[in-house]
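Hi R.,

Here are the chain sequences for the assembly we discussed:
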Amino acid sequence: MIVVLTGGSGGAKLIEGLVAEIDPAELTIICNTGDDGVFHGLHVSPDIDTIIYTLAGLSDSDKGWGIKDDTFVALEQLQRLGNEAWFTLGDKDLATHITRTRLLREGRALSEITDHLRRMLGVRSTILPMSDQRIETRVTTPLGEMSFQEFFVKAGWAPAVCAVRFEGTDKCRPAPGVIDAIRHADAIVVCPSNPITSIVPILSVPDIRSALMATSATVVGVSPIVGATAISGPALKLMIASGFEPSALGVARCYADFLDTFLVANEDRGLIPALERLCIKAVASDIRMPDRAARRRMARELLALVRN
Amino acid sequence: MIVVLTGGSGGAKLIEGLVAEIDPAELTIICNTGDDGVFHGLHVSPDIDTIIYTLAGLSDSDKGWGIKDDTFVALEQLQRLGNEAWFTLGDKDLATHITRTRLLREGRALSEITDHLRRMLGVRSTILPMSDQRIETRVTTPLGEMSFQEFFVKAGWAPAVCAVRFEGTDKCRPAPGVIDAIRHADAIVVCPSNPITSIVPILSVPDIRSALMATSATVVGVSPIVGATAISGPALKLMIASGFEPSALGVARCYADFLDTFLVANEDRGLIPALERLCIKAVASDIRMPDRAARRRMARELLALVRN
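And here is the predicted structure of the full complex:
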C-alpha cells in the first residue's frame, strides 16, 4: 500500500501518474481539508474534490479544479439572486457539494461521505480527509485575516502575507484510517503541493506528524519549487511568512523530521549537500509534470526510489 | 389592493392575466406552502416559485413548473452520486432553492426570503407564504401516507386517496402581512387551484378563514372544475376523499362561509340555483385559460365583477 499526502492540483498530477503505474486500489490518499469552505450554505472540499475528479477521469486538467465541460447555469442564477459568486462552482460540481452538505447535516462524517462520493464515481483508491473535524487555514494580510479561498481566489493571492495559522487543530483528530494507513504503508509520498497550505495543515492534525516520524515506510517527497519559483500558486510568499526560505531547501525543512528522500529539480542540484545535512537523501530530476507522460515518468521514478 | 389566494400552476395563469390588467404593485398573493418539500437537503417551495417565476417572466408555461429553457446538469450528476431524482430540479431553479435554504439556516423567515427572491427577480407584486411555519399536506393512500409531492410527482397521482390532512396547523400562524392584506383588500380572488391541496391548506392556518369571513372586501372564486372534470391534476379524487362532491358545487362548499361570487364554466350553468342556495352569487363564463388572451379576458371579467 502506498500512502500519499496531498493538496489539490499539484498533487493531483502526481497521483494521476501513480494510478497509471500501480493498481489504484493499492493507493491511500490523505487529503488536506484546511481550504474547505462554505459557499451558498454548501460545504465545499476543494482538494478532496480535485483528487476524486482526477481519479474518476472527470477533472478539468486545464483549469486544475472542477469538472471538465461543466456548465455554470446555477452560479449565474445565484448571482442574479444577489449572491456573491467569486468562488466558481459548476453545475456538475454543485451536485457533489449538495450531496456532501446533505449527508453532513444528517450526521455523517466527512470521511464516510468522501468514501461514498469516490465509490459512486468509480474511484478505486481510498481517499481520506486529514480529519473529520473542521480545521481552517487562516491567512493574515494587511487587509485583515481571511480564509485561504478568500486569499487565493477572491483576492487573487495578491495581498502580502503576514502569517498563516490553522484554526481548530486543538479540537481535531485524524480521520479514521489515517494513522493506520501511515503505520502500515509500504511507502509514503509527500506530493509537490503547497507546503504551507496543503501539507502543513495535514501535519498540524495531532498524531499525524508523529506517525510519519515513527513509520517504517520510506517517506519520499517531491519539491513544488524550482529555483526560487513555485511551479504554481502562492507557495513562496506563504513560506516566507511562515519562516521558511523560499526554496526546495525550505520545503525540505518543513518535512525534515520524517522525510527520507526528496526529489528536487535538476536546477536545484546545488542544494543536495545542504539537504544531506538535514539527513535527507536528495535526488535531482525533471520534476515538472506538464502532461500525462511526465506524470507517469515521475511516478515510475518515485516507485523505483521507494522499492530500492 | 387585490389579494389573491393561490397554489401553483392553475393560479399562476389567472395571476398572469391580472398583472396584465392592473398595476402589479397593487397585487398581494398569498401562496400555499403545504406542498413544500426538502430535496437533496434543499428547501423547495413549488407554489411560491411558480408564482415568482410567472411574474418574473421566467416560467415554463408548457410544463407549468420550473424555469423556461432551464438545464438539468446538476440533477443528472446528483443521480450519478446515488441520489433519488424523481423530483425534477433545473440548474437555474436550484439557485432559488440553494439561496432559500441558506437564508433559512441563517434564521431568516420564509416570508422575508420570498420577498428577497421576488425583488431580486424584479417582481413588483407582494408574495406571501401562508405561514412562516412548516405545514405539510399529507395524503393517505392504500400504499401508506405520503407527502403531496410523493403522491403527485413520484406516484404520478395514481394511488387511490383515503384522506388528506395538514400537519403542523396546530403550531403555525399566518405569515406577517397575511391577515392585514385580507382585512384591507379591495377585493379577494380565490384562484382556480386544487381546492383540497392548494386553497384548503391556506384556510387551515389559524385566523385566515375567519379573516376571510370578516373582511368587507368582495371575495370572488374561479372554479378549477368543468362538469365532472378537473381542468388539471388530481382535484377530483382529493375532493371525494375529503367529503366534497367532485364538481364546481363541491368546490363552492369548501369556500361557502366566505365566498361572495363564484365563476363557473358555462357547462355548469345548471349549478347556479344550487350555488345561490349557498348564498353565493354565481356567474357562468368560459373559465378555461389556455393562452395569454384567455387569461387577460378572465382577469378583466373578475375585475368587472369586483368593481360592481
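Residues 141 and 162 of chain B are 5 Å apart (CA to CA). The interface with chain A takes residues 40-42, 70-71, 73-78, 80-83, 90-92, 94-96, 98-99, 101-102, 105, 116-117, 120-121 of chain B (CB under 8 Å).

Let me know if anything looks off.

Best,
T.
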